[in-house]
Amino acid sequence: MLRSISFKNTLRYVRPQGYISVVPLTNYSTTTATKATTSKKFETTPDASDDSHTGQFVKTVSEPYTVTTYARPKLVLTHGKGSYIYDLENRKYVDFTAGIAVTCLGHSNESITKILQDQSTKLLHCSNLYYNLPAGELANKLVTKTKEFDGLHDASRVFLCNSGTEANEAAMKFARKYGKTHGGDEKTEFITFENSFHGRSMGALSLTPNPKYQQPFAPLIPGVNVAIPNDIESVKQLISKDKTCAVIIEPIQGEGGVNTIDESFLVELRKLCDENNALLIYDEIQCGLGRSGKLWAHSHLSKEAHPDIVTMAKALGNGFPIGATMITDKVEQVLSVGDHGTTYGGNPLGARIGSFVVDEIANEQFLTKVNEKSKKFITKLNEIADSHSDKIIKVKGKGLLLGLQFKEGVDINKIVTKCRENGLLIITAGMNTIRLVPALNIPDEVIDEGLSILEHCID
Predict the structure, then answer these.
(1) Which range has the worst mean pLDDT, 16-25, 65-74, 400-409?
(2) Which residues make Cβ contacts (< 8 Å) with residue 348, sequence separation at least 6?
(3) Taking the model in full, what pTM does it have?
(4) 310 Cα distance to chain centroid
(5) Which CATH superfamily is domain 3-108+365-458 in?
(6) Which residues neighbour 46 within 8 Å (Cβ) at sequence distance 6 or greater?
(7) Which residue in 74, 98, 205, 244 could disulfide with 103, CB within 3.0 to 4.6 Å?
(8) Model confidence pLDDT, tens digit, residues 2-42
(9) Domain boundaries, given as residue ranges, for the chain
(10) In the CATH scheme, what is the code of domain 115-362?
């Protein structure tokens, strides 16, 4: 039996077990919400207090039962629409995070909502013991669209999974199999790069050379060597024809500081891998699927810099958990039945959403608009950087994976907090960088609104 308690603009259902469900009563429309924000422009509102609805929810419902792996402000998000997101206190935010580059087509995308509803009435799961239509269609589409849009020119097959970390784990296993097949049991080592991020499972974490992430869980997988981005000599010192099975790199490092890798370096890296019969893996989990202004970040590169494996996730599901590992035929040739597997990967619901996302992004008009929005961001960010040259080093990134790098000593977390208090959500990255990864279809007026808040808060 439920007991209902009414609060201002919310209805809370208190179950006998003590669980509280909170339902916002306000029906937000973009027009109404925009007017509300405009009338309160630059009005700072601190995070929710301990005795607020949010504070009580965090204190009594969530925090006591959630493992301690995140440091979060008192902010409970309840729903979103497009590039706006709302919290339990009925506050509205411009969202420049997109769930860390995930909701590429915006929150509550109506077409995806329809797909979720329709597919849920047909088939949610059937395992990989059998084929299903959406999974086959997605794999086909990823390969064909990649070739069509200047991506991996000899793309061949796709392994579908549930996350970016899983996609990288699959890439590691495929690389190990390739190395052992062509070089024996000693050809198992990897080369990764400073400031890279590839995931938090034991395998992917081994490729993420950040002491903060690695030390509490050492020893990790052995045989991982760390090179310097854009320094080919550092790779030459580490790579071995007898031991190296693969080199993994993000064409644009996201977590590590929004660092774009030089094309000339990637061309040399490709040559070096070929000379040593090692695979080249591009982690495009954050920078892929339209984020750079092309379908893939490596679509900006010549074929001489194309990899053997591309990993992806994030944007592929617009919020639904899905990942994929795309390989060339030379990788496919060493794989056998049973080499890898997944229970949920390639489930019909996730695959169908993925197909829709690929169709939307693999479109010249869509990508042209992404680049137009990117120019709008970069122009304003450069203005902000110029007017704060004593604090800001430079604007970084490509497409809608952008960063504003501050000098050492500037506490960018204070800027993040101040932006949140003024109705803008942003995130940080390495090298003291503020990272901006909005929805790829963010409206121009929302870009202006968010950048206006950002500039005010930096001031």
Answers:
(1) 16-25
(2) 119, 122, 123, 124, 125, 126, 132, 133, 134, 135
(3) 0.92
(4) 14
(5) Aspartate Aminotransferase, domain 1 (3.90.1150.10)
(6) 421
(7) 98
(8) 333 334 444 443 333 444 454 444 443 333 333 334 444 67
(9) 3-108+365-458, 115-362
(10) 3.40.640.10
